[in-house]
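Hi V.,

Quick status before I head out on leave. The structure for the redesign project is tokenized and pasted below; the design run finished overnight.
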């Protein structure tokens, strides 16, 4: 049973049904319910979502391209009207970026692997998805099966709340934050050489939320570019400090929780 919000089969509702039917077919063949991915501290869950949503977006886009111009226009108008009724001002930009990225970048990724290797490449990506966001941002990295560089988890100065991978995708979203972002081209150049990272978070006795993240690039020059981008981010309003520790770039930041404060 497939339930889609809508009072009638308008063009935008039909477009949504196409998207969801792709999920239904993929689920029948490849089992999309993988809760174990959500419990991991790496990016496998995010990368799998990019394949799942990217494939549905690809077919949805193909369907829409085949419709008459008036149907396309009506679908676009309905989508805009639906979005106009939502208030996004209360959400941090990085959260909205993280939610939308699997759809946007996932479609680009799936289009690329289909163009390179045909439809069966999607099946393979659903069976064995990319392991990092770098792999779906840069499909050549996925095809080369280039894994992330192993980075030790930094020490925390208190009881650990969370730890795991930041990843190239989240780093790009952070660097291009509308409030404290750097030039998108500079951010893209920085993550192009992303090699690996790890972060740890903790809460201090005086109620501060703290994070310490270590990054490395694929080469020494790539690590330098990551450092330059993070330093520029801090200079433009990002919270924290940047340093070098044992050949890694370290970002450290603490911020008060709640009360509308910007938290890293």
């Amino acid at each position: 049973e497939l339930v889609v919000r809508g009072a009638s089969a308008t063009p935008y509702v039909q477009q949504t049904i196409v998207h969801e039917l792709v999920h239904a077919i993929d689920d029948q063949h490849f089992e999309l319910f993988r809760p174990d991915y959500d419990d991991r501290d790496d990016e496998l869950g995010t990368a799998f979502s990019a394949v799942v949503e990217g494939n549905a977006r690809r077919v949805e886009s193909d369907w829409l391209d085949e419709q008459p111009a008036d149907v396309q226009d009506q679908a676009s108008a309905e989508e805009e009207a639906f979005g106009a009724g939502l208030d996004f001002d209360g959400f941090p930009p990085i959260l909205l970026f993280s939610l939308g990225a699997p759809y946007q970048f996932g479609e680009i990724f799936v289009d690329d692997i289909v163009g390179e290797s045909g439809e069966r490449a999607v099946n393979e990506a659903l069976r064995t998805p990319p392991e990092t966001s770098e792999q779906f941002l840069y499909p050549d990295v996925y095809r080369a099966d280039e894994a992330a560089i192993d980075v030790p988890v930094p020490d925390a100065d208190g009881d650990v709340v969370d730890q795991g991978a930041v990843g190239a995708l989240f780093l790009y979203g952070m660097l291009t934050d509308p409030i404290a972002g750097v030039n998108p081209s500079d951010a893209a150049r920085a993550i192009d050489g992303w090699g690996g990272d790890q972060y740890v978070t903790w809460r201090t006795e005086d109620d501060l939320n703290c994070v310490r993240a270590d990054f490395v690039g694929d080469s020494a020059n790539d690590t330098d570019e990551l450092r330059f981008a993070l330093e520029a981010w801090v200079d433009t309003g990002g919270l924290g400090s940047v340093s070098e520790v044992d050949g890694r770039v370290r970002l450290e930041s603490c911020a008060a929780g709640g009360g509308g404060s910007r938290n890293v």
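Above is the designed sequence. The radius of gyration is 20 Å.

G. will cover questions while I'm gone.

Best,
W.
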